[in-house]
Amino acid sequence: MLGLYKLARPVLFKLEPEKAHRMTLKIMKSGLMPVPPRIKASELEQQIWGLTFPNPVGLAAGFDKNAEVIGPALSLGFGFTEVGTVTPRPQAGNPPPRVFRDVKSQSIINRMGFPNEGLRVFEENFERFKHEEVPPPGVVGINIGMNKDQKDPAADYITLIKHFAKKADYLTVNISSPNTPGLRNLQDEDTLRALLKQLIASLNNAVGEYPPPPLLVKLAPDLTEEQQEQIAGVLLETGVSGIVLTNTTVARPESLPQAFRSHPGGLSGPHLRKASTQIIRNFYRLTKGKLPIIGVGGVSNGRHAYEKIRAGASLVQLYTGLVYRGPEVAHLMCQELMACMRKDGLSNISRAIGADHRNNNGGAESAA
Ligand SMILES: Cc1cc2nc3c(=O)[nH]c(=O)nc-3n(C[C@H](O)[C@H](O)[C@H](O)COP(=O)(O)O)c2cc1C
After folding, report:
1. How many CA atoms does the CB half-sphere of 152 hold within 13 Å?
2. How far is the CA of 63 from the centre of ligand 1 (A)?
3. Which pLDDT score, from 0 to 100, does residue 120 have?
4. C-alpha 112 to ligand 1 mean position (Å)
5. Which residue among 72, 129, 258, 268 has the highest number of C-beta atoms inside a 10 angstrom radius?
6. For position 232, what pLDDT does the model report?
7. 96 contacts: CB under 8 Å, gap ≥ 6
8. Which pLDDT score, from 0 to 100, does residue 36 have?
């Protein structure tokens, strides 16, 4: 399988990034993508929010914006996939080109601006997956966003919550993409408090007597420590279920080539790794470990995932790592994670969550 990707990668990387992505989705949909053997390991399995995650490695939002390849993504060995960002109405996004690779640093800058086919098409695709005869195991979250021309952001989030409250395993409120004007302002303390109160009320309304799915909030890596403190307070106060940390960054390390780093948009990949892990560490401390965190940003191997988990993440996600390491990445990461756990003598990955906050000697099991 690795051999096949080694052959395919130079061809894909010759194509303009979005074209390569469309081709990848086509191959995944056709069923021609070779799949690795499934790792079924009880030491990687966890129950979080009442959901069973077969392993903690997930596919991040943005890869499958229209919920077209849920089954094929889970078949690659991901324990969960977050589809979207979906907006109520279809929209074209920003004019292309809007995705840029820097192969040397294994980074991506994107300013896509939520191009997607809107909730109707998304829902049809999602239903098709739900009715598959034998869907692969795994959790499916839906990442929701607002249309670019929406003046009242809460209205779009509420429309999507009403639609998907009974369908999604979990919902992520995306307020951190740098490519929708004004979106990140929703992270301001008072705005966020008011928004989340409305969204949680509409979620409870939408499910009636049934328990609501967990509502998560996805944040930016560019928040100041003061903002992080304020947001943590709001998240605890309003009763959201978890946090996705983080989206892409607007920061540009000097070491990136000038031509690449001058593209406006959000940077993802290795240069985001440390910043996102630090924010995970901060939020785990600020929330006293009460809100499960999905750690995302620059993860491409098991050691990176383990680092984020020890800092406080319960689960991890990746996007850029899949582009550069290929379709075997989830499978490989699960094996590498198990090697990290064996080294520390851990019987289940849950024992590693937040281990750095308990001691520093690597003996997470005894510290847990
Ligand atoms: C091309 C591209 C499109 C993305 N689109 C979305 C999106 O629609 N919604 C979202 O919440 N995050 C989106 N992201 C951000 C990723 O989900 C993730 O948070 C970020 O890329 C950091 O992880 P990584 O370093 O593993 O890529 C996108 C990322 C990339 C590279």
Report:
1. 6
2. 7
3. 97
4. 10
5. 268
6. 98
7. 16, 18
8. 87
Identify the CATH number of the domain in which residue 144 sits. Answer: 3.20.20.70
User: Ligand 1: which residue has its CA nearest to atom 19?
Assistant: 247
Q: How many domains does the chain have?
A: 1
Give the residue numbers spanning the domain of 340.
2-34+48-367
Strands 46-48 and 51-53: antiparallel
- pLDDT reported for residue 274: 97
Probe target for ligand 1 pocket from 101, 248, 256, with the most ligand atoms within 8 Å of CB:
248
CB-count burial class (<10 Å; 0-12, 13-18, 19+) for 364: buried
Q: Which stretches in the chain have pLDDT values below 70? A: 1-3, 360-368
Q: What is the pLDDT, as a whole number, of residue 217?
A: 98
Residue 214 CA to residue 208 CA, distance in Å, equals 15
Atom 26 (ligand 1) nearest CA: 318
Structure tokens belonging to residue 62: 């943005």
Which of 177, 202, 241, 300 is labelled catalytic?
Answer: 177
Amino acid 313: pLDDT:
98
pTM above 0.85, yes or no: yes
Q: Let me know if 177 is a catalytic residue.
A: yes
Residues touching ligand 1 (Cβ under 6 Å) are: 60-62, 65, 85, 99, 108, 110, 112, 114, 143, 174, 177, 218, 247-248, 268-269, 272, 296-299, 318-321
